[in-house]
Structure formats: structure tokens, C-alpha cells
Amino acid sequence: MSKSNLIKGTVILTIAGLLTRFIGFFYRIYLSNAMGAELMGVYQLVFPVYGICFTIYASGIQTAISTLVATELGKKHYKNIPKILKIGIILSISSALLLSILIYYNSETIAANILMEPSSASSLRILAYAFPFCGITSCINGYYYGLKKAGVPATTQLIEQIARVITVYIFAGIIGNGDAKVTCELAVFGIVIGEIASNLYNIISLLCTSASREVKKLSKANGFTETRKRKLAKILLKLSLPLTGNRLLINILHSVEAIIIPSMLKKHGLSNSEALSIYGTLTGMTLPFIMFPSAITNSLSVLLLPTISEAQASKNYDTIRKTSDLSIKYSILIGILSMGVFLTFGKELGNVIFKNELAGDLLMTLAWMCPFLYITTTLSSIINGLGKAHLTFANSIIGHATGILLILWLVPRDGIRGYLISLLISQLLITCFDGLIVIKNIRPSFHSVNWILKPGIIITGSSYLIFRIYEYIAPTGILMLLAFCALLCVIYLILLSITKAISIKDFK
Description:
The chain has helices spanning 3-74, 80-105, 107-114, 121-127, 131-146, 151-176, 180-208, 210-221, 229-267, 272-291, 294-313, 317-353, 357-366, 370-385, 389-414, 416-442, 448-473, 478-498. By secondary structure, the protein is mostly helical.
């Protein structure tokens, strides 16, 4: 993939990601008002289970499909490409169905003994229906990522989110009747409907899009000897199993980290209701805000992996270095901008949007994590593209294990502040280790002045000026607050351009 195609694909996925998160942003406001912080915490508790299951039936397989399709495309072995997708879907749907059955029939045990919240059992049973549909969708998305076609996966994100929100909004009005518990279960039901809707779109796209027709046409005309399905299955398993195993262990650690937070908060002296309320505020309100700008870096990282893999296979080291430079630079710039926005308007965002003072305080504290969080996503994709996924795995294990130990030590003593400290330290560790590996293998052209110094000075000065104007005008309402946040972003980009920290040449 050329740099222009990488940028084009990233832009498509970013637009879809931002629109999806924008819809999700107002959806979160609706849920927080309809359920309250405590039930928002119960709702959020099912996602560690969802994440672990997704890792098993989809995550590694999707990446393996993407990588293998890109490799076969580069070798012009077109006949193998449709087979890779078929094998991947069979593997994914088989494991997804098994997990659906296990979660459905063991929901009460999982809720009581693992999540330590028996009331989440009904949500787990509803969630189990989503797994097979989600698995098929992930495989088809991986297929399109491998073909360097970002349009279908991007649209899939939007359809899933829109279907979810509309479903919950309509059904909550019809059968919810203001019952927060029913709304909580409907929110999980919305996930299932969203996955079904995006799955139907993906299947239709697979049958009708020009990219798929082009692959079929090339596979018929291509003269290369096709690889047998059994051999392709072995290759796919060889690629996916280590990825799945690595991500599963990381996801388990991440899930343990999430599950023990309410328990540790109770050890700090909070009641069950207070602990769930704080957990709901953190995971349902604050973290989605912090992750909002990562739509750009996530889109970039999805396309970086096959791009680096392809360049590595052809020994095109110049492409690897230039692509990595571009990706690292803009991940840092986005991280610095996000940190500035949340430090400046974090308290106001929490108070005005969620009417929750704690959410604002958490946003301001977690703002310091933004540069490390976004750059880590990019660095991990570069390392994985170089075929060194075991190193990102080791780094993540060290980071998350450190985070869990710090949670067990700090949260009972310092409450939620202890968790924030543990989160910042663990993320900093992962970023440093990933950065050292990238420097050792690629030696990117790091420019401290244009990448850190100028952006840091610009965001500091701009934030001070914009916030003073905001205080003087004292506007009211969500839209005005978001307008000032957007104004800060625009001024930041303009000043970066004027000072030549960024240039149109970066994208040529």
C-alpha cells in the first residue's frame, strides 16, 4: 500500500470512527440519564466477558485473515483469497457458537463468582446471541482490510452503531417505561441488533462490491497454482493462534483489572452502590471521552499492520521507515491536542454533559495519559507488522500485570485516585517498551522540535487563551462547550501549519 492509499484508507475509517463515536457520545448521555451511574456500572461489567470472547472467536482470526490476504495479494495468488475468508469464517463461527452456549447456560455462575454482581446474569444471556454475527462480520472486515479496501468496514461501524441506538431508543420508549433495569438489558439487546444489522450489510457487500468481483475475476484468470484448503487452514491457524493466545492473556489481565476495581473500592470503605456508581462513571462516561480521539490512531493502526507486513515481505525498508515516521508523528500530535482539550475543558465536559462532577475530575486526570495511549496503538501496529508480535505481547503483559498489582495496593488505600495512578504508570511502561523496540528496529527520524516542543507550546498558549475567552463569555449548553473545544482544535492545527510543524508534504 502506498502512503497515499494508507492516508486515504485512514481518512475513510477515521470519518466513520468519529461519526460512530459522535453518535455513541450522545447515546452515552442518554444511557447515563436513563440508568444512572450504578446501573451504568452493571452494564459496563459485561464488557470484560464480551472482550474475552471476542478475542477467542474473532480478534486473532481477523488479523490473520487481513495479513494472509495481503500476502497472497502481493504474490498474485488470487485463487487463494476467497478460500482464506471461507476458512476464517468457519473457524470463527464454530468457536463463537460454542462460547455463546457456554456463556448463556453459565451466566449466573459468571455473574456471581467472576463479575461479583449477580444482577448482570440476564445481560450476559442476551449478549451471548451476538457472538456468531460478530464473528462473521470481523472475518469479512479482515478480508477487506487485507485488500486495502476500507469502505465496507467503515460503513459497518456506522450501521452497527446506528442500529444499536435506534433499537434501544425505540424499545425503551415502548417497553422500558422509565425502568432503569429494563433499560440496562435493552442496552445489551441493542448490541445484538447492531451486530445482526452490520452482519447483514457485510454479507450483502461481500456478494455485490466491485472489490469482491475483481478478486473473483482475477482468481479465474490467474495462472498460479492454487493452494489447497487444508494447507491454507494450517497457515491461517498458525497465524491466528499465537495472536489469539497473546491477546486473550492480555484481555484476561485487562478484564481482571476492570472487575477488581469495584471490589477494591469497597475495600476502601465504599458501599456496593457507591463502588458501582464510581465504576460506571469511570468506564461509562470518562473513558469513552478519553478514547474519542483514538478513532484516528485506531484507523491508522488497522491499515498500518498489512502495509508494514507487505513492505517487510518485499524488503522495502524505505517505505517502512517513512510510513512509520508519518504515523508516529501524527499520533503524538493528536495525543498532545487531546491532552490539552481535556485538561482545559475536562471539568466543564463532565459537569455540563453528564452533570457529574467526578466525571470531570477523572477526565482532567486521565488527560495526561492521552499522548502515551495513542502512540502505543501506532507503535504496536508497527511492531506487529514487522513480525514481532511476541514483543508487543510481552510489553502488554508487563504493563497490565504492573497495573493490577498497583490496583491491589493503591485503590484500597487511595480509592479511585489509586486506580488512576496505576493506569498512568502501566500505560507509560507499555509505551516506553514499545518505543524502544521501534527505535531499535526502524530508527525513525524523530524531530523533537516539530513533534513535541512546538505542539506543546502551541497547545499550552492556545488552551489558556481559549479558556479565558470561555470564562469571560460564560456560555451555557453542550453545543457551545463543544464549539469551544472545536475552536481550540482548529487554532492548534492552524498554528502547527504556520510554524511548519505540519505540512501538506507529509501527505504527498
